[in-house]
Structure formats: C-alpha cells, structure tokens
Amino acid sequence: MGCEPPTVTLMARKLEASGHIRRTPAASDKRASVVELTESGRILTDRVKEMWCALAEETVTALREDNIADLPHLLHILTENVDRRRARRLEQGGQMVRVRTA
User: What DSSP element (H or E) covers 16?
Assistant: First the structure.
C-alpha cells in the first residue's frame, strides 16, 4: 500500500460528489471542464483557511520574529534534503538506505 497523494482527477471527483465543486463542459473545448466552487465549497474553503491560520499561529507561537522570518529559507533547505535523499534511494534501486551522521 503506497502513500502517494491522490490525483487531481480523483480529488475533483470526491469534491464534486460531496457537493463542494461543480464541473461543466467548457464551451470552447468539450474535452475540458470548467470547475467552480459551490456555496458549500466556499464555506469549506473559509473554514480551511481559518484552521490553517490558527495552526500556523500555534506552530510559531514560541519563536522569535527573526526565527519566523528564517522559516521559508529553512523549509526550502529541508525540502531539498528530502528530495536528495529520495533521489539517492531511487538510484540504489528503491532500497531504504540509512545515512549515519556524526
């Protein structure tokens, strides 16, 4: 069982089934769809934004402002480290490899 994120199509189907978005064929190209938020989708979006902001505030509450200002840079470095590790793992045939540090 993998831990892959759902595809955009699967997410759209689930959001449509739950009534949060509406898909209609595009007038200019019937292969494409126009996706719109429903009222339910707008309410959900507002709730998620509120929850995200509250979580962000709780997460950084004990940090100094200069530490908070450094976060985007630090998160970028962390992301690069994870990407490099993933690349090493793939190069070695998908085997999990432990890297020892001092």
Answer: helix 8-17
Characterise 53 by phi-psi region: left (phi > 0), alpha (psi -120 to 50), beta (else): alpha
Q: What is the pLDDT of residues 30-72, one digit of tens each?
A: 889 899 999 999 999 999 999 999 998 899 899 999 999 999 9
Per the confidence metrics, is the pTM higher than 0.70? no
CA 14 to chain centre: 16
The contacts of residue 71 (CB under 8 Å, 6+ apart) are: 60
CA distance between the termini of the chain: 34
C-alpha dist (Å) from residue 35 to 21, 31, 47: 7, 13, 20
